[in-house]
Design brief:
The structure is a homotetramer. Chain A has one domain: Chorismate synthase, AroC fold, CATH 3.60.150.10. Chain A is about 25% helix and about 20% strand. The first copy, chain A, contains 8 helices and 17 strands. In chain A, the strands form 5 sheets. In chain A, strands 1-2-3-7-4 form a 5-stranded antiparallel sheet, covered by helices on one side. In chain A, strands 10-9-11-15-12 form a 5-stranded antiparallel sheet. In chain A, helix 1 packs antiparallel against helix 3, helix 1 crosses helix 8 and helix 5 packs antiparallel against helix 8. Strand 12 of chain C pairs antiparallel with strand 12 of chain D, so a sheet runs across the interface.
């Protein structure tokens, strides 16, 4: 597949650039008969969109989804669900100054070299704008998996980390602050750091932790489509992601087997959960938890030396509206991608046994 | 797809369990006319196989590949390449004692729950035995990409880390020691630790770093099949992998944009390379480097409390032949998976432009 | 895939029902840098749409395509091309009388049984309305394959057949009459028959012949994706199609090998062409010609006994606007599907050889 | 996909040429827990193989399947089923005389042009030898669909046709004669014609009719993967097939809607069945019946003028062992492909509804 579809059964195909007329997608494979809660879908869209607070980008989008098919009298029909989201506030004029310039650590250079043509307005297809479509599909996937709890939150910004295990956090507090960090002390420090970055025209990275609970046993399709491998691909496909780890992650690499193994309880649950809820690439019913690393956004408000498409020296200076830290806005995207992966494996698992 | 195929164009489908008659695979989509060097393929197989040294598992396999089709007079014909590898030394009797037991942190429990039937001999399909097939396909992919240099090595075992950047390492030294670490000082310490684990019947984890050089610009298919997302999925699908990061990775999450951005040189290369050779999900020509985290193998030679399939208490004790540390053996597997990913994107990129 | 995508590289995914807000699709994998001729695309749309003449359905649709992405300054960017087409004249009230009725030989019964929910307005997703999206994508595929000539025409309606081989026909005359038959004598008879059907509130079937010329050698991916097998699947996926044959077709089944074999000329062309331009599932450079059989449309303006969803007796009577013969309107759809198949194989063939 | 896989969930990938060491395949997606009857699988293999009677090719193959994985204690494990079949009687020396010759209406020319390299021994990958692998997979699919009845038979050879509707035939008689025609009168005439062809060193074509009964309602994935479209692709992918029609087929194209529509009975069955058991691309529970047209095999025992790869004149004369009529041997292949298609849709249909 040429990269614009995600999923095997529950499949999302998207289109759209940051400065085109609209973005949108088609969700195929959603089982028929699912009653959709459109307010819940809108809520997810609102969580993602820019202009929500003073710490994120000031671009204003209505971000209203128009469903064009696949839904009749409020229920999915089993036919593909097509949807569009208008780009209403793209301000093309903000980007004319970068027409031939390759901004450092952006996709300008690579898209130009790969395709030989580049929509220079904003990030074009490489912009995070397309993630709005993922959130729509993820919202529907979440409703298919009504029993499953998906909670993502910001676990670090720059060098500020939550210092508690996730089990000590109250997920209901995640939406209470603009950083989406359920630990209030850390949240305050993070917000402070982000405002400082904004003032300096700089950006900073961070990490998101996601916890999936009440997952049925048996999800995952070894050997290549292991559950954690698909989750990893899903998260790594989000803009600015540099790393993924689940369960004990990179720390587990330092450990000994005698310390790392999760011992079974009689009922099949485990006493510890360094496995992160996945063994042999298949869910075992325990919490699935993973962490996603985001680099600092490449668009900074400081001048940078760079080149243009002819190789001449140029200056890159960010204008327009940008995020000092994308991590809070990526929280609903991480949840959406997790929902898409789980939905696909949930359906595939129904046909595993004769 | 139900998990046993990898790739879109250059596609590998595998079969086989650790204790079945044979394992094997089919490579589809390899362009016709490629002259194959069978010695080179065998060399990769030898690198991976057990019984090579005193620090790894003592299971002896000839690991001889039999090519059954798709090759005529030494060249690929464009038709699918089928191959088998016999399992000659599986010692089924070593596993009869675990027939109904769920070994901690193994795939016994999840496979049983998902499929309702479980080949209890060894790890069955969940065993790392199937990775031998990946190495065969990866060896052929490497020959397709003759200009590209793929070098993986062990960068840490337990808490012992190489303390140099990869640019200061001599990759030709990787095969000089059983740990596959090109830094001799670290290699000696790692070997020591592994022997200690072997003596204690314990296991330890580690990490592998992989560097891809001389990569053409333009490989990767955004937005979902970004190059680093596919590399991540490829690595995460290898047994025991818990994490993947590329470029600045999790460290980049702590950085500021002004420090993180890679400034362009006039010729299109970059002064720094925190991007890890990939921008917007597409290769930019700079070195691609990534790190893969392996947990300690779950099969330890110490007694562990566990349960059987009826929920009764049981004891799991490893017998048979096991690895105190799989990381050295995984080096050729990491290279093979990298080669498969690059081969697929290399072919896809040929049809990106009109 | 769950049925709403067509193609491997040049891939079309569609959505939309006859009476939803809009229909549309996403074209993925179209190489970057192709200059699009939008008038040509519109022309194809006009050829397909209803309300063009007195012999076809009177439903009026502007059938205006809105391209939303993937095109910049008139050229394809290599990113997915999203498009929508509004349904402006669906007259939902025409279908309220069939809410629970299963119309004979329609998809009402099967969709209801499969999905448990049915959009009863018109044919919903089963309506031929979605073929408009195929024509959009086919029009773009045609422009990618600018050297290739694709000509379809009506070769029979009811028992009226063209009695000349296609080589004696002038394809430029196909659009000169409403039946899209390039043989004027046959066209007149066909038109007469269709008007009679319209008067009686009945429908009649027919066949379309399609000729592809100037096809490069080498298109097709044996053994399962043979060129004629994909063409067959493409045509059979069009509404009302009951049969497909290529080259000598069903007549060839009566022949002897000594009469059927195509002897080679020194330059690689063949003296005869019963092969229909395809040997071993791969194009050999000669004309590819095939015939597609269309059953009479099931919606007739006569009363028919039927049942409702509870199994009670009911009467089905067509109201609304219907076609006495869909075959003329299907000509651009057949061409569009042929273009999609050829485009996909054209791109795949570029990576067949090392 | 590059043509060597068939199916989405129940997926077969094959490899192997007529004169390579072996042929084989991997069946992925077969649900776990299915008890396999190996004798039944062997029986299907025996039905297909050459050397069974005086009217078919004299090549002798043991055609013994070796299952290498995916089956444990007689049941499928849900892991991929790998299998090989040795080529034991290929007589490579029979083909050395055609090393550079393009035999008329064979795949020699097209494979050489597409791949630039050609395994000239026999038909290589284009030979019907690979269909043995389809029969293995189809035999397993049949066992998954134990309630469904799949019966194919020869309905015509040359100009000799069965003149009864299939409902008047006794399928149990199909295996009673070498032609696999359940109508004894027609069978005798067909056998006579084939013997005559053999004597003359000529070949003749024919058709196979296949009837699927006891099919559940709801199989098929519109709009592109309609049940009849997938069946058509499946049949057209078999060697020598030139046409496919289902239900009323090409005859339906001559009919009027008032005569063609199938009226419902109160219980959902239909009084007539010109629909061929499929409406809107989805099965409606009635018999699915279709007809497949086979051209006469291109390998005849008469001299033919042809060219070699340099364009020089040459003579093609069939040596080795050939079939005067492949149609009887194709009967189990048609059944196998039907089983594969139905199995795939059967599994997909399980996840259509919430």
């Amino acid at each position: 597949m040429a990269g614009n579809s995600f999923g095997t059964i529950f499949k999302l195909t998207t289109f759209g650039e940051s400065h085109g007329a609209a973005i949108g997608g088609i969700i195929d494979g959603c089982p028929a008969g699912l009653s959709l809660n459109f307010e819940a879908i809108n809520l997810e869209m609102q969580r993602r969109k820019p202009g929500q607070s003073a710490i994120v980008t000031q671009r204003k989008e209505a971000d209203e989804v128009k469903f064009l098919s696949g839904i009749f009298e409020g229920k999915t029909t089993g036919t593909p669900i097509g949807f569009t989201i208008e780009n209403t506030d793209q301000k093309s004029k903000d980007y004319s100054h970068i027409k031939d310039i390759y901004r450092p650590s952006h996709a300008d250079f690579t898209y130009d070299k790969k395709y030989g043509v580049r929509d220079y307005r904003g990030g074009g297809r490489s912009s995070a704008r397309e993630t709005a479509c993922r959130v729509v599909a993820g919202a529907i996937a979440k409703q298919l998996l009504s029993e499953i709890k998906i909670n993502a939150f910001v676990s670090s910004v720059g060098e500020i980390f939550i210092d508690k295990p996730y089990q000590d956090l109250d997920f209901s507090k995640t939406e209470n602050n603009v950083v989406r960090c359920p630990d209030e002390t850390s949240a305050a420090k993070m917000e402070s750091l982000i405002r400082e970055m904004r003032k300096n025209g700089d950006t900073v990275g961070g990490t998101i932790t996601c916890v999936l609970q009440n997952i049925p046993v048996g999800l995952g399709e070894p050997v290549f489509d292991k559950l954690h491998a698909e989750l990893g691909k899903a998260m790594l496909s989000i803009n600015a992601v540099k790393g993924f780890e689940y369960g004990s992650g990179f720390c587990g690499a330092k450990m000994k087997g005698s310390d790392h193994n999760d011992i079974f309880n009689p009922d099949g649950t485990t006493k510890s959960n360094l496995s992160g809820g996945i063994q042999g690439g298949i869910s075992n019913g325990m919490d699935i938890y993973f962490r996603v690393a985001f680099k600092p956004v490449a668009t900074i408000m400081q001048k940078q030396d760079t080149i243009d498409s002819a190789g001449n020296k140029a200056i890159a200076e960010g204008k327009g509206r940008h995020d000092p830290c994308v991590v809070p806005r990526a929280v609903p995207i991480v949840e959406a991608m997790a929902a898409l992966v789980i939905a696909d494996f949930y359906l595939l698992n129904k046909i595993s046994r004769h």
